[in-house]
Design brief:
alpha/beta, 11 helices, 10 strands, binds iron/sulfur cluster
């Protein structure tokens, strides 16, 4: 089998439904929600229904090799030409529906939620890879909006020129180090990208959409110097900051240890220190996901209304 086919098969086995250059993969919270269970922290923070959320990416490529990344970034990836946004979104939504249809006959399924899931309301562009490397990201987001769905884009902040032109419902920048030296150690960029990250922080400050800075913290790696993080984050003046524990899952288990995973109490303590330095309030937290939300107090949290 060719390396390309091997890579495709490996991703398919892990539950990725590949569509052109991208992929969709229903997350475990969608499964729990369809069985009438709890929903992901995005539900607790922003009112997003997990069973109506499509977790996808328009590209599998990334220009980082983050130590904490769950995804199979160390493996060869199927190199594919970027797909046109309409074709990509249609394929992604079909893939999601195919997955959801498997719940139809199960006794454990919450039928009301299943009916809702047939009409997704939210697209999380955050599955794997760096979405700003997809050349039609702006058009894809515009299409999502035209179909009356909200969108979250999670970016590693290395392509400010793309961030400046897109308009998702909520734009996340993952910032996992307070300075360049730590950034190189934690995110292992493929080029000299720190100046781009600083540029992206400035762009977020001017942006018209809701903005979030997300920190993924691992004990003994990057969970230190809250004041230095605050100094960096202040450049962006984001609406929210999410402080999240590294979780010892997926392929990150090859790079970090279980002991690197902070407890929720440590995340709360870090979030409080960061909030104090930034002048943001600690507004919510979800112990199961080991995540805390700091708010600037400027926008209302609930998106589904
Ligand atoms: S930027 Fe995201 S997708 Fe890329 S390596 Fe880091 S965590 Fe993984």
């Amino acid at each position: 089998m060719s390396p390309l086919n091997q890579a495709t098969e490996a991703l398919t086995k892990k539950g990725y439904h590949l569509v052109g250059s991208g992929a969709v993969k229903p997350c475990l919270w969608l499964n729990r929600s369809l069985r009438g269970g709890d929903q992901c922290y995005k539900n607790h923070f922003y009112g997003i229904s997990s069973h109506r959320c499509v977790q996808m990416t328009p590209t599998l490529e990334c220009n980082h090799q983050c130590l904490h990344c769950w995804r199979p970034i160390d493996d060869p990836l199927p190199a594919k030409e970027p797909m046109e946004p309409k074709e990509l979104l249609d394929g992604i939504l079909r893939g999601q529906q195919k997955f959801i249809s498997g719940y139809g006959g199960a006794k454990t399924t919450d039928q009301e939620r299943l009916a809702e899931a047939r009409q997704p309301k939210h697209v999380a562009i955050s599955l794997m890879g760096e979405p700003t490397l997809y050349p039609y990201l702006k058009e894809l987001i515009d299409l999502i909006r035209q179909q009356s769905m909200t969108s979250f884009v999670v970016s590693n902040a290395t392509r400010p020129e793309v961030l400046a032109e897109i308009l998702p419902t909520q734009l996340y920048l993952s910032i996992n180090a307070p300075d360049e030296e730590m950034y190189r150690r934690v995110c292992r960029p493929t080029a000299d990208l720190w100046p781009k990250i600083l540029e992206s922080l400035e762009i977020i400050k001017q942006h018209r959409c809701r903005s979030v800075i997300r920190l993924t913290l691992a004990r003994g790696l990057n969970m230190e110097r809250a004041k230095d993080y605050a100094h960096l984050i202040a450049k962006a003046e984001p609406d929210y900051v999410e402080v999240k524990a590294y979780m010892h899952l997926g392929r990150s288990r090859d790079r970090l240890t279980r002991e690197d995973m902070p407890q929720h109490a440590e995340i709360l303590e870090f979030a409080r220190d960061l909030g104090e330095a930034l002048g943001y309030e600690l507004e919510a937290d979800v112990p199961l996901s080991r995540v805390a939300l700091l708010t600037s107090g400027r926008v209302s949290r609930n998106l589904e209304g």
